[in-house]
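Standup, Tuesday
Yesterday: got the pipeline producing structure tokens again.
Today: sanity-check two examples.
Blockers: none.

Example 1:
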Amino acid sequence: MVVADLKIARGLDYYTGSVYETVLVGHEQLGSICSGGRYDTLASDGATTYPGVGLSIGVSRLVSRLLSAGLVRATRSVPSAVVVAVTSEETRPASDAVATALRARGIPVEVAPSAAKFGKQIRYADRRGIPFVWFPGGTGEDGAPEPDQVKDIRSGEQVDADPATWEPPAEDWWPRAVPAGA
């Protein structure tokens, strides 16, 4: 539906013609979510100015309003996809090194705030909605190195992992906005 509202005025020093505002029908309380207008001097090459029409969608405004109105929900409350466990404060540098390697590859990760039993660190991740817990390998009783492991705390699946190659499934990299009932 298109409605002409001749009393809308936006940025009079910038817009030089028609202006546009968009609302979601049925969710007018969200206000304008997309706006723009005509610009007589949108671009210039120094000798000639060029007009144009443009618009911008307020994505952060729209998403925050949709979240606060309960129309959508986030799949998790924090950006982290992985919590790297800390077995002891003495081994924290190993956990920090895993986190650094994962971050260098763009994986959102945090290190557990304190050395604690693994169950407590898994509960910490679960409370924050973080799907994976990384357990740095150690040294076995025979002195041989043990591999790192990562656990999907939703399924319980735990596998050997290398911070140089492991990555979460695509849908777990970042939180997503989904319909409130989903």
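Example 2:
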Amino acid sequence: MKIKRSTWSLPYLVFLVLFVVLPLLLVVVYAFQDQSGSFSLSNLARFFSDGDAIRTFALSMEIAIENTAICILIGYPAAWILANRKYNRSAVTIILFILPMWINALMRTLATAEIFNVLGISLGKGTLLYGMVYDYLPFMIYPIYNVLQKMDKSYEEAAADLGASQWQVFCKITIPLSMPGVVSGIMMVFMPTVSTFAISEFLTNGKIKLFGTIIQENINSSMWNYGAALALIMLIIIGITSVFDNSREPETKLSV
């Protein structure tokens, strides 16, 4: 009896349904229910009338933008150096960037907080951004690195042959061709930053609350419906950004 190739996908389909689709459906169901289990839009309406939640969301967006910007400023040059064999000839350098990811993110955050305590540095927004960059920088570096590494070098060579300077080649060829990696890095850094809560708790001693903290507090207080509504809002934002990313033109226009 010949087994169809599609049969081998059944375990993955079951996993997808149980651990991805079903949890998301539960979030949607709880978000549109009140405490009695009846259909209601009150949870979503409550968010727009909850001043504390709105301020926390705005602060989360601000910190996420700052963290993403810092990761780009640090991550792009690092990815360019890693992808350029002229400056990086050893796989050890790449492994050094991967190495911190082998340690649990919570343990890295606790260690970072302890370093600040030993140095006598007061915990606040600065330490939070430091911890955010430390945790999410690899997620910015590797998408850009992968794109730069696979980029057709003949474009740069052609631009140089036509008289473009190294700076012109970088600005008009390298950066445009690497934008898919930059966009992927932004999505992998920005959204997790908005929804995180452990990093902000440990690196600010609870002084700064992010949107993920609000969700956690509501769920821990058995306010599942409002917590699910807040989580749904995050899912909608993630979905919108994903659609925007997929709708980008596949081809990049180059000019020298």
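Quick observation on example 2: The chain has one domain: 57-246. The radius of gyration is 22 Å.
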